[in-house]
Amino acid sequence: MLSKKRLLAVALIAAVAIAAVGAAPVTLKYWLWDAAQLPMYQKAADNFMAQNPDIKIEITQLGWNDYWTGIETGMVAGTAPDVITNNSSKSSAFESKGQLVDLTPLIKRDKVDTSVYLNGVDKIWVRPDGKCYGFPKDWDTIAIVYNRDFAKAAGVDESTIGKLTWNAKDGGTFEKFIAQMSLDKNGRNGLDPKFDAKNVVRYGFAHSRFDANGQPTFSALARSNGWKETDDLYSTNFHFDDQKLIDTMVWYKKVIDKGYMAPFSYITPTNGANMAFAAKKVAVVFDGSWMKDFYTQQSFPIAFRTLPAGPEGVKSFFNGITDSIWTGSKNQEQAWKWVKYLGSPEVQGVVGSFGVVFPATQPGLDNSIKVFTSRNIDITAFTDEVKTPGITFFGPITAFGPKIDDIMMQAWDTIFLSNKPVDATLKAANKKVLALFKK
Amino acid sequence: MKALSAIELRRGKVRSFSIVHLKDYLIAYVFIIPSLAGFAIFFAIPAIRGLVLSFTDWNLLNSPTFIRFENYLRLSQDEEFWNSLWVTIQYVVENVPIQTLSSLLIAVLMAKVGTSMAFRGVMIIPWLLPNVVVALLWSWLLDPAFGFINEVIKQFGHGPLPFLTSTAMALPSVVGINIWRHMGYIALMIFAGIQSIPKEVDEAALIDGAGPWRAFFHVTLPLLRPVLAFVVITAIIGSFQIYDTVAIATKGGPVQSTWVLNFLIYKTAFEGYEMGYATAVTMVLFAILIGITFIQMRLMRAGEAD
User: Fold this and answer.
1) Confidence (pLDDT) at B12
2) Which of A266, A270, A413 sits opposite B249 (nearest CB)?
3) Which pLDDT band holds residue B303 (cuts at 50, 70, 90)?
4) 8 Å CB contact of B145 and A262
């Protein structure tokens, strides 16, 4: 009711305004959540407005939680932004409720070339029924991050760190590496037989809390062990009870007991493993490319290296974000123009030159690599994983994402904090996850 | 204009209708309109809407359809709901007595010992901080890897304590954080209550030979009852509504050990998109709070003074 009145008011004001000024520019509301990305999109918007004087772009940036709550309530109230920055973990729920515009007819009409995107990253936004909800803006992969001072002190040959191996049985050279990076209170590292696992002053390795996908955490090892979370991108057949995942978790418990990895109780949900890394209490972590600025800004030298290769080779979670048009937008044609522009090589080039995220097209990516090279930061660990075929994989796309996260986070707590058996806990959790889809 | 006492106003009711009194009533209503309007817009209307929605399957984005009592039936069999209710009750039971007793202690200290304004001012600083800031502050202080408190514990030769990361300690830690935040403010209310007790009563007790303890327990405390009743009731209501600290510091974990009702409501409504069901949980919480308040008002005879 309220929204209708409001719309009427807006329409009236608009009518008066148009009568008074003639052709007033259409205002498009565009929202994003990452403050670090605001400047580059403001620049893109300025360029766009210079080219299209009849469209005004109004950008709003909100923190992650406020952002999504704002979008949801906006959709209910009829006041959501025309174009939203969209994430694959959230998109399905909006799509299934008819809140996002299918771009396929518009792509066909305007003959937009979608082959420019790297490594099929645009596939995250194309559904099995052919509907498309956006163009990829940027992408991210996962890499090893380690403290170089500690590596030097421990006598690690740094040239080997990008080529480590891992398996669930003996942990491969990766386990040796994190053992060597650990330190007990007597100054011994994990390779020393007298290493005191009960009195560790610096853990070789740590993860932030696991969710269901384990994007910057366990997915690297579990997937390299041959685990598949679901049968394919849209499958609802989850495999949290798979032996390959169970074996990976048993290995994690083993290295925690050995004192090479920080126990789960050591890392709080508020301050992740990255904070313990910054506090020099942890020597090695896995993290996503979106976090690279956090690490390069530390007071000590760090390096990014390719993830360890498991029995199935190196595996990195691959994800990205897009811009989607809200079906409630009154200016869909203008919104499409803006979305098309955001996905264009021109904007990708602008985005790349800011050196914040990795753009989804090669020229854009080249721009961003140039920036990082000029800052003396080696980011090839992230980019190589995309260049080499077979390394990257997508997380499953499901409308039950948050619910599955809740179930799995409790399962991980049960395994790693309450010390319940891995096998039975994961089997029970998987049943709960599968039950979600039977309702 | 002549101010009317309560007795005069009450008399006005039974008296025959007069134009003067009508005018008084009108003026009285004009004065309460702002608060009444706020109550209606921000409380009564949303509450009624919530009640209606609790009988629907609204998922935020569809048009809601009535499903009768289905949400309430589901709720009665929902393990997660009962667990949340149990966690919340544990929280309230741990929180309210300790908070009230420590506030009372501080209030007495404020009245008798720390009479300086600086001391009284410092006591309410935690209450001036936003909840989110408090939760962040404490999750830093209590962090096992680099938290100040754990560094101190390590100096005494103990390993870091998992304050917010173990099922045994997470809820008590959240309780502790909130007591820290609220006790200064509550102490201030009790302190105001102590100040309002006439000095003569205290002096009379002392002259009659009562020691300071006896005077406190038999004179001060009974006279404080209306204030204490108010403090306890509001503390219980506030404790049932615990959310911020959990959402920031523990995220409901580990293993749902801090999965309080309001956290469940938030998760269900905005992550599970089950607004209808979430409002049903809200209504149950509302009913519990009304029930508890009613019983307490009766038991503590909060409306009367001795």
Assistant:
1) 47
2) A270
3) low
4) yes
Q: Domain for residue A425, yes or no?
A: yes
The answer to whether residues A244 and A365 belong to one domain is no
Distance CA A339, CA A41 (A): 12
* Mutation site, B143, B248, B274, interface A, largest A CB count within 10 A: B143
Measured between beta carbons, the chain A residues lying within 8 angstroms of B136 are: 270
Chain B nearest-CA residue for A100: B61
CA dist B139 and B131 (Å) reads: 12
In chain B, the residue whose alpha carbon lies closest to the alpha carbon of A78 is B61
Ordered by start, the domain boundaries in chain B are 1-53, 74-299
State the number of CA atoms in the 13 A half-sphere of A145 facing the CB: 34
Is A197 in the same domain as A290? Answer: yes
Chain A residues with CB inside 8 Å of B253's CB? Answer: 269, 409-410, 413
Q: Classify residue A54: in a domain, yes or no.
A: yes
Same domain, A273 and A421: yes
pLDDT tens string A371-412: 999 988 899 999 989 888 889 998 888 888 888 999 999 999
Instruction: Write the residue in B253, B270, B271 that is nearest to A413 by C-beta.
Output: B253
Considering the domain architecture, whether residues A154 and A275 belong to the same structural domain is answered as yes
CATH number at residue A244: 3.40.190.10
Contact A190, A259 (CB under 8 A): yes
Is A177 contained in some domain?
yes
Residue-number span of the structural domain to which A74 is assigned: 25-137+320-392
Total domains present in chain A: 2
Name chain B contacts of A281, Cβ cutoff 8 Å: 145-146
Q: What is the pLDDT of residues A193-212, one digit of tens each?
A: 999 999 999 999 999 999 99
pLDDT attached to residue A8: 53
What pLDDT is stored for residue A20 in this prediction?
45
A147 and A254 co-located in one domain: yes
Greatest mean pLDDT among A121-135, A181-195, B206-220 lies in: A181-195
A5 pLDDT above the threshold of 70 = no
For residue A207, is it within any domain?
yes
Do A357 and A158 contact (CB within 8 A), yes or no? no
- 3-class secondary-structure state, position A259: coil
Q: Do residues A198 and A282 both lie within one domain? A: yes
Mutate to test the interface with A, among B154, B271, B275, B279 (most CBs of A within 10 A): B271
Q: Counting beta carbons within 10 angstroms of the beta carbon of residue A305, is it exposed (0 to 12), middle (13 to 18) or buried (19 or more)? A: buried
Dihedral-angle region of residue B273 (phi above 0 means left; psi in -120 to 50 means alpha; beta otherwise) = left
CA of A232 to nearest chain B CA: how many angstroms apart? 23
Nearest alpha-carbon partner for A98 in A325, A322, A320, A323: A325
Fold of B74-299: MetI-like fold (1.10.3720)
| Closest in B61, B251, B272 to A75, CB measured | B61
